[in-house]
């Protein structure tokens, strides 16, 4: 039998926290499965107690693939036991073009009377008005369209 590359050794407090997470009704299924994986990978627990199994045994017991067990084990060794449970924040997430205040301004402008010479607000007119009001420096028409669609406003 080959040695495991990423060994999980839980302290008593970590084990108690993981047992609480795995039996909680307020946690997601993903979090509960990760907690059960870590509990079953613990080297301080005998196989009779449900611990220190191979990746295949743990995968069979939890109902996931061996690859997933290996990834959870690897991440637990790299970043810490309890940090593996929660979902990781996206690193390269782009900031929103319109925050809550800017969205409210857009809806208010949309509900106001259209400019002179226009029967109703077009997306281009709305873009020009937002830039004129210095709400944003630049904005795409699709961003305006999706924001208005989300808010269920009527452009007139």
Overview of the structural elements:
It contains seven helices and no strands. It is an all-alpha fold and 156 residues long. Helix 1 packs antiparallel against helix 2 and helix 3 crosses helix 4. 20% of the residues are buried.
How are the elements arranged and paired?
Layout: H1 12-22, H2 29-41, H3 55-62, H4 66-79, H5 100-111, H6 123-132, H7 141-151
Helix pairs in contact: 1-2, 2-3, 2-4, 3-4
- What kind of sheet is the major sheet? none
Structural class: mainly alpha
Instruction: Give me the strand/helix succession.
Output: HHHHHHH
Give a count of the beta strands, DSSP E runs of length 2 or more.
0
Quickly count the helices. Answer: 7
Rg for CA atoms: 26 Å
Distance between the termini: 72 Å
Oligomer: single chain
Top keywords for this entry?
156 residues, mainly alpha, 2 domains, 51% helix, rod-shaped
Quick structural overview:
The protein has 156 residues and is an all-alpha fold. It is 51% helix and 0% strand.
């Amino acid at each position: 039998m080959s040695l495991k590359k990423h060994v999980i050794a839980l302290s008593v407090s970590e084990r108690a926290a993981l047992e609480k997470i795995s039996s909680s009704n307020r946690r997601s299924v993903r979090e509960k499965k990760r907690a059960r994986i870590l509990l079953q990978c613990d080297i301080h627990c005998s196989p009779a107690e449900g611990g220190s199994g191979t990746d295949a045994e743990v995968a069979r017991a939890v109902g996931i693939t061996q690859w997933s067990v290996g990834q959870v084990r690897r991440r637990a060794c790299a970043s810490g036991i309890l940090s593996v449970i929660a979902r990781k924040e996206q690193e390269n997430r782009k900031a929103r073009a319109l925050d809550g205040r800017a969205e409210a301004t857009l809806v208010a402008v949309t509900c106001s009377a259209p400019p002179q010479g226009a029967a109703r607000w077009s997306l281009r007119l709305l873009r020009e008005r937002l830039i004129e009001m210095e709400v944003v420096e630049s904005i795409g028409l699709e961003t305006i369209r999706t924001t208005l669609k989300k808010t269920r406003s009527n452009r007139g």
